[in-house]
Amino acid sequence: MLAVIEIQWWHWVSFILVIIFFLALDLGVFHRKAHVVGFREALVWTSVWFCMAMTFALTLVPVRGRGEATDFLQGYLIELSLSMDNVFVIAVIFRYFRVPSLYQHRVLFWGILGALIMRGLMIWLGAELIHSYEWVLYIFGLFLVLTGLKMLTTDDTEEVRPERNPVLRLVRRFFPFTTEYDGQRFFTRHHGHPALTPLALVLIMVETTDLVFALDSIPAIFGVTTVPFIVFTSNAFAILGLRSLYFVLAGAVTYFRYLKVGLAVVLVFIGFKMLIVDWVKIPSRWSLTVVAGVILGSILVSIIAERRDRAAKRLSEPAPPQDS
Question: Could you give the CA distance from residue 79 to residue 68 in angstroms, rounded to a whole number?
Answer without folding.
Answer: 16
